[in-house]
Amino acid sequence: FEPGVAEISSNSADKLTSMASVLYERPGLRMDIQGSFSQNQDRQALALSRLQKLVRLQQLKEQNLDVIPEQDVSSAGNISLEEYPRYLGLAYEDSLAQEEKDTSDTVSEVVAEDAIENKNKDGAELTIEKEPLTVEFMETQLLKKIIITDEDLRLLAIKRASNVRNFLAEK
């Protein structure tokens, strides 16, 4: 399996087809099927997949479709390389807004302190120009917030085993 994916690849399908033939020819032969995962590779791939889902959700929101975070976002069209930074930025802003909402009490105190610090000695307002956020920075920050649990990996392994069993049963 490709990292983070439970679907059977065409290369694996060929091997499983051969295995199905052997099982058919020897009906008394029994086989135990157990899914597995790679702790690091699958965890990273699942996190990247969730990041892409967050970006696609922004595309669906922009198209004024009713969106719930758990829904399948495959109905969203492909996002071009030109559109990706914009949708990623929207996902990043949503993440910041959620973070602010989660810490609203402390944010108001920090904003008040920042307002004081943003004045020079004469009390004149200082203007601080922020550089635009890079795609790499936003991806890194969002990926830090995406948590892939051991349960997520266990469910991936179960889905893989189920897909193999179903594939063999169909042959």
Give the low-confidence spans. 107-116
Helix count, DSSP H or I runs of 4 or more residues = 6
Taken in chain order, the helices and strands follow as: HHHHHH
The whole-angstrom Rg is: 24 Å
Judged by helices, strands and strand pairing, the structural class is mainly alpha
Distance between the termini: 19 Å
Tell me the strand percentage band.
Answer: under 5%
Describe the structure.
The structure is a single chain. This protein has 171 residues and is an all-alpha fold. The protein is 61% helix and 0% strand. The protein has 6 helices and no strands. Helix 1 (10-25) crosses helix 6. The chain is elongated, with a radius of gyration of 24 Å. It starts with 9 loop residues before the first helix and ends with a helix. Residues 107-116 have low confidence and may be disordered.
Summed up, what is this model?
This protein has 6 helices and no strands.
Question: Could you outline the blueprint of secondary structure elements for this entry?
Answer:
Blueprint: H1 10-25, H2 39-62, H3 84-102, H4 104-117, H5 135-145, H6 150-170
Helix pairs in contact: 1-6, 2-3, 3-5
Which features characterize this protein?
mainly alpha; 0% strand; 171 residues; 6 helices
